[in-house]
Design goal:
This protein has 319 residues and is α/β, with parallel strands linked by helices. The protein has a single domain, classed as NAD(P)-binding Rossmann-like Domain (Rossmann fold, 3-Layer(aba) Sandwich). The protein has twelve helices and seven strands. The chain has a seven-stranded parallel β-sheet, with helices on both faces. It is globular, with a radius of gyration of 21 Å. The mean pLDDT is 93.
Length: 319
């Protein structure tokens, strides 16, 4: 019986591997719009798809990001200034894309732009600390998608949304997990709504990778700013050495957990864009597959106990 199960599982993976080999033809005629191309996954994906022959439209926040991409990519790549939190700018970029793609429509949009700070305990934060991250990570995804959805429908193309394993489980305070849960919900409902039009909607849920999102120095810097503005009674609750303890634990764990091979994520993105039969969801990273996602299916008392046991406890903890 055990051997039968093993053979069945192996047969399934071999079948899936063969089924997913096919790639769409005529890449040179297909436009792909990517947000957040200044660095990280978006930058690598723009370069990768450009090398594969796609017509890449790279949305960059900075002029420097645009210039650097232009230097290393072919003249088929187009860069556009994009601030996903600025609705007028999003519409302006969509109009430029409409002119570029013409009657062919837009083959794919990859919603990659995202930020991860400020992230902290909820009693360190005010409501204003949630706005920018939700604007970028959630409203930006929705705004960009809606701005080009008619072009996607025309091409019977794809929408690729970059969420996170923290869109499945929520162990940290702040807007990051909230925004990624929102992306997951938007992705699922959009997938159902667009299926009748031949539009595929795919989701990428990376684990920990070495990007600005997991930059421990950046996160520490924001934590220090938040700590400085806390009232003394809240600082007393946590203890004067709490921030130092968090910084040490965060640095050690991020170094151990963060995968430096960003191509694991980029290859999933490329498959979502280019495969004849893409997957509905991709979970790049061994930590995503074998730790975070399984933990998200565990009973709440198990996942809570894990995070409480392994987290840095405040001075006033009753646990």
């Amino acid at each position: 019986m055990f051997l039968y199960v093993i053979v069945l599982i192996l047969s399934f993976y071999v079948y899936r591997w063969f089924r997913e080999l096919g790639r769409v033809p005529d890449k040179s005629d297909k436009f792909v719009y990517i947000t957040g191309c200044d660095s990280g996954f978006g930058n690598l994906l723009a370069r990768h798809l450009d090398n594969k022959g796609f017509r890449v439209i790279a949305g960059c926040y900075s002029e420097k990001g645009e210039d650097e991409l232009k230097k290393i990519c072919t003249d088929k790549l187009t860069t556009l200034h994009l601030d996903v939190t600025d609705n007028d700018n999003v519409k302006k970029v969509a109009d430029a894309i409409k002119t570029l793609v013409g009657q062919r429509g837009l083959w794919a949009v990859v919603n990659n732009a995202g930020v991860s700070v400020p992230t902290a305990a909820y009693d360190w934060l005010g409501i204003e600390d949630f706005k920018h991250m939700i604007d970028v990570n959630l409203y930006g995804v929705i705004a960009v998608t809606l701005s080009v959805l008619p072009l996607i429908k025309k091409a019977k193309g794809r929408v690729v949304n970059v969420a996170s394993v923290f869109g499945r489980i929520s162990p940290i305070g702040g807007a990051y997990c909230i925004s990624k849960y929102g992306v997951e919900a938007f992705n699922d409902s959009l997938r159902i709504c667009m299926a009748p039009f031949g539009v595929k909607v795919l989701c990428i849920e990376p684990g920990f990778f070495r990007t600005t999102v997991t930059d421990s120095c950046l996160i520490k810097s924001h934590l220090e700013k938040l700590w400085e503005r806390l009232p003394q009674d809240v600082k007393d609750d946590y203890g004067s050495d709490y921030l130092d303890k968090v910084s040490v634990v965060m640095r050690e764990r991020f170094e151990k957990m963060s995968d430096g091979d960003l191509m694991k994520v980029v290859n999933c993105m490329e498959h979502a864009v280019a495969a004849v039969r893409p997957r509905t969801r991709y979970s790049p990273g061994w930590d995503a597959k074998f730790f975070w996602l399984p933990l998200s299916y565990m009973p709440t008392f198990i996942s809570d106990a894990f995070f409480l046991r392994n987290g840095v406890k405040p001075k006033g903890s009753i646990l």
